[in-house]
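Notebook entry, cofactor series.
This is the third protein in the set we're modelling with a bound small molecule. For this one the ligand is flavin-adenine dinucleotide. I'm keeping the input format identical across the series so the outputs can be compared line by line later. Sequence and SMILES below, as received.
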Amino acid sequence: MENDKHTYQVLIIGGGPAGIATAITLHARGIRCCVVEGHQSPIRKSGEAIPPNAKPLLKQLGILSLIEDEKHEVYYGNKSCWGNDQLEQKEFLADRMGHGFLLDRLHFETQLQDLYKNTNNAFYKGYKLKKVVSDETKTLATIENTTETLTITSDFIIDATGRKASVCRHLGVQKEELDTQFAMTFNIKLSKAIPNEIIVEATENGWWYVAPFTENELTMMFFTLQTLLPSKENRENFLQSELRKTKHLLKIIQVKQIDTIKIMPAGTSYLQIPFGENWLAVGDAAYSYDPISSYGITSALASGFYGGHAVADFLNGKQEALHVYRYVVENAFRAYIQKLIAHYELEKRWKQSYYWTHRLSVLATETTS
Ligand SMILES: Cc1cc2nc3c(=O)[nH]c(=O)nc-3n(C[C@H](O)[C@H](O)[C@H](O)COP(=O)(O)OP(=O)(O)OC[C@H]3O[C@@H](n4cnc5c(N)ncnc54)[C@H](O)[C@@H]3O)c2cc1C
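Returned structure with ligand:
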């Protein structure tokens, strides 16, 4: 088996934080694995805040030094207007782990992929998963780029494809959507420098999230529910109107014109069971978090770490290892739901608002079900 060029013990689809953390862990455990990543080179993704309590995990994964690189910034917490009209600094300082980090996300993705490449050459970059066929003993995955189609054979396959959980979909396993929150995102160039930080501000129909993108560019996101999303031609007016409703952002940021607005899912979703006979899901593919939690990246790295160890144990004959993985990640997800509800409950200013009433009723249903 080991002689075949496209045959591995474990095939990982997705080269984001979850996929690379899994690959690093498996490689360290002596498991022959490969990563397939759809993009030829890393892309800049949404999400940049890493909380202080992620540090022990980063250390265990051997990537704390990557985050201490000068391109990332030490970070003490977001500015937030939530639950009352004040803009408050939500400090990490009280955390016994000290500061968190504000990532240069593109640089971080590049660092992770370089680290993996330096230890293991099995990296199919620019190849997309097209098909997966799985039986009790092996998995056959068809991947393709612009010039060729390959078939990779493996004993086990990992879904690290992010929110859309592509491997699961190919295997006929669906994610459950807990809500229909979407992000409307756009970038603006800055005419004058503003502090390098994340600002969150709630309004009647959702909430704003503003974060640095490049040195002189910001990414702005408005989170709302699918029912409230305007038609394409009304999107800019809707966003300008939501911005005018803010008490603080309006004074800090002037948005004259919005060029391109992207709409992306940004709610909570999960797999009923994050593994099967010879597959396991990590990161957003298994559990996708509401961005208000800043859980996504850390959780992707953690599930890659625990998932990697579980799969290595499983391949070494420990049948219960995948169940232990489920126990750990499922409990973390339940704890997240409780914190999420508590956070949304803080906002009581718009009692008639569809967004705020609907948000809480959906989340509350989840805890009683
Ligand atoms: C608006 C927004 C704001 C956020 N803010 C934060 C934040 O402040 N802090 C935080 O921690 N998290 C945040 N997140 C979440 C965070 O970005 C994600 O949780 C994190 O990227 C998940 O990592 P992952 O590796 O599971 O998935 P991803 O990073 O999505 O990586 C999946 C990879 O799989 C590849 N792939 C997908 N399909 C295929 C295929 N068919 N074939 C081959 N390759 C494929 C993709 O190219 C991608 O590189 C935010 C998310 C959103 C949407």
